Design the sequence.
């Protein structure tokens, strides 16, 4: 395909005020397809198309305002554009409007409103919209928790080839959420997502090899997958790598490396990372024993778990066990005082 030739004709249409031509010209500049990549120029043409009422351009321009790409960041303007796009029935606009309501981008947080827009996008078979709806149903955010319905939307997202949806469906099969437990199907979906570069799926692949879920237990293979996830900056993988190095699973024992990975996870605000880092300070693992520092890290771990900045599945049980550990630690600190 001659992309440069395509850009020439898109430009002719765009200069004649054609909204579709303006949108595709912006897209070409955004992707560097047939033209030099130029986000500022992309935003200019998306704006021209959006002003002519093109819903795809409204969504694209909204995303640039949301993230400050080629244009000054403005969540409020992003919300306005997503609303205009969604009002025209654009699945992308509906999904992104849901993202705004869920996270409070340019508007007051309203999880129920977010779910409403996710559902509209999902009903159009939008992969990300279906995944976001499934995620909300899994957590009970803005809607009553319903694992059966969540698994159905994850399946729709996964079938659309959306990596987070594939990972979510894998988790359903791994945990038996809305479907019968099936470790083979779980790892099959994890692999599909991991092969598309999804870091959470890579970590889950490591989890399956670690425990022998759907595959023969293999610590080396587990560590390799977790390492790939960590290289993409996944805090949960940082914690798992720390565990590998601390205990010599799939790698030679190295408390120094274990501490470094726990510290990376803790610095990222991960609850388990903060917990294991606190344990290092409590027991003098690779660091000078510091009980007060350990207690501070445990406190931060509990806060992070409550805010769901972690892979901790049962927050209540985690909090109970953490409080017991903190009580014992306070007694040790008191005796040293």
Sequence:
């Amino acid at each position: 395909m001659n992309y440069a030739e395509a850009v020439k004709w898109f430009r002719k249409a765009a200069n004649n005020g054609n909204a579709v031509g303006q949108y595709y010209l912006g897209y070409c500049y955004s992707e560097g397809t047939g033209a030099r990549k130029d986000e500022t120029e992309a935003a200019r043409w998306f704006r021209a198309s959006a002003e002519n009422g093109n819903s795809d351009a409204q969504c694209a321009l909204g995303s640039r305002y949301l993230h400050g790409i080629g244009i000054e960041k403005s969540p409020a303007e992003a919300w306005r554009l997503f609303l205009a796009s969604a009002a025209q029935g654009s699945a992308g606009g509906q999904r992104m409007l849901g993202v705004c309501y869920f996270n409070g981008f340019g508007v007051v947080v309203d999880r129920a409103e977010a779910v409403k827009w996710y559902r509209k996008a999902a009903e159009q078979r939008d992969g990300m919209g279906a995944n976001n709806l499934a995620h909300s149903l899994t957590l009970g955010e803005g809607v009553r928790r319903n694992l059966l319905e969540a698994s159905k939307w994850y399946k729709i997202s996964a079938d659309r080839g959306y990596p987070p949806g594939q990972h979510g469906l894998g988790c359903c099969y791994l945990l038996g959420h809305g479907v019968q437990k099936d470790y083979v199907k779980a790892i099959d979906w994890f692999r599909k997502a991991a092969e598309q570069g999804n870091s959470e799926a890579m970590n889950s692949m490591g989890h399956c090899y670690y425990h022998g879920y759907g595959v023969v237990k293999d610590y080396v293979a587990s560590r390799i997958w977790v390492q790939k996830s960590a290289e993409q900056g996944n805090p949960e993988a940082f914690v798992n790598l720390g565990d590998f190095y601390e205990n010599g699973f799939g790698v030679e024992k190295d408390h120094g490396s274990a501490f470094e990975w726990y510290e990376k996870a803790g610095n990222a605000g991960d609850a388990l990372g903060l917990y294991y880092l606190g344990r290092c300070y409590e027991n003098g693992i690779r660091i000078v024993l510091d009980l007060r520092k350990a207690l501070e890290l445990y406190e931060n771990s509990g806060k992070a778990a409550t805010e769901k900045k972690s892979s901790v599945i049962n927050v209540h049980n985690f909090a109970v066990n953490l409080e017991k550990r903190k009580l014992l630690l306070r007694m040790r600190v008191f005796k040293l005082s």
